[in-house]
Task: inverse folding
């Protein structure tokens, strides 16, 4: 019985650890089959331009629809996909889906940029640039409509390698975004070295922000820094109107968060955009104007 926990010459005799390892292996196998069976889906969350209060882009966020279980959030399976390398085929699938969907919307007359997340392992993949070029080509999406989001964790293992990869991606014409800014390490150093176009302020800071607080000073400084570097500054995790008002005062460019919408499947996102059009802004704005 104890032998069951043996892998590559290591044995786990401790029952709790054994169970953990088994659980992980199980999840890995389930992910592998899920990929073959196409059990994944991509949801899209609007990014709103602060000046016009209109949706100007979306972020593609993957989910796993597990039969008999329901929707599983990426936080639960992306780390395992990352560890096992399954993130490479999964990431490619998301990229292709996102480019095709954005192009479909363009053909319907909706000019939306689409942002796709890249994990550390994807960034190190030597085939990434070719995969991105292929996704653009086969969809027909103009490269400048594609944004690739990276975190500082992705560039940490090898900055030189990451710099090379990002230069290749930039040469394709895609835009590069620094995601979760402020939460990683040596942020300013990376901000200075990486060829990014967009700065996404981590949602932690937005959520913690109250007027005249230290956190709001930090957000204000991040927005000002991004602006003066010529970057498009996006606030993530915008949940209420007070956040919106504070960020407007700071000169933030774009907003993303539950105040506007959760990530939605394409037909629901189209419903959202239709309501936004009818209200000439976010749906709740129409309601408050009528009051
Ligand atoms: P992220 O790229 O920072 O994406 C933003 C996350 O914040 C999303 O969670 C979104 O649903 C959530 N969010 C947006 N607005 C709000 C808000 O107002 N309040 C709160 N509480 N949350 C908000 P989600 O979809 O669960 O994704 C979590 C993370 O998983 C993403 O963080 C990203 O790092 C990763 N991820 C998602 N899809 C992919 C993918 O296709 N590839 C890779 N490599 N990573 C992905
Ligand atoms: Mg992101
Ligand atoms: Mg983020
Ligand atoms: Mg993240």
Result:
């Amino acid at each position: 019985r104890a032998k069951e926990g043996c892998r590559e010459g290591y044995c786990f005799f401790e029952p709790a650890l054994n169970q953990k390892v088994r659980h992980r292996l199980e999840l890995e196998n389930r992910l592998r089959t899920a990929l073959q069976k196409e059990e994944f889906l991509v949801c899209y969350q609007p990014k709103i331009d602060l000046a016009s209060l209109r949706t100007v882009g979306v972020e593609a966020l993957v989910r796993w629809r597990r039969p008999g279980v329901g929707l599983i959030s990426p936080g639960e399976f992306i780390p395992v996909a990352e560890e096992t390398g399954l993130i490479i085929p999964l990431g490619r699938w998301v990229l292709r889906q996102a480019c095709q969907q954005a192009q479909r919307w363009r053909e319907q007359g909706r000019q939306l940029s689409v942002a796709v997340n890249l994990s550390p392992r994807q960034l190190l993949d030597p085939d990434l640039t070719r995969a991105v070029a292929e996704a653009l080509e086969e969809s027909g999406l103009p490269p400048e409509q594609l944004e690739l989001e990276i975190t500082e964790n992705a560039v940490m293992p090898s900055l030189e390698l990451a710099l090379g990869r990002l230069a290749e991606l930039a040469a394709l014409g895609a835009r590069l975004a620094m995601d979760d800014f402020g939460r990683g390490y040596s942020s300013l150093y990376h901000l200075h070295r990486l060829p990014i176009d967009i700065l996404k302020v981590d949602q932690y800071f937005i959520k913690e922000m109250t007027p005249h607080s230290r956190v709001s000073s930090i957000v204000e400084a991040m927005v000002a820094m991004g602006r003066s570097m010529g970057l498009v500054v996006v606030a993530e995790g915008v949940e209420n109107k007070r956040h919106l008002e504070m960020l407007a005062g700071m000169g933030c460019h774009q907003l993303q968060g539950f105040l506007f919408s959760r990530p939605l499947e394409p037909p629901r996102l189209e419903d959202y955009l239709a309501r936004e059009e009818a209200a000439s802004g976010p749906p709740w704005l129409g309601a408050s104007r009528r009051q």
In short: Residues 179-180, 200, 236 surround magnesium ion (ligand 3) (CB under 6 Å).
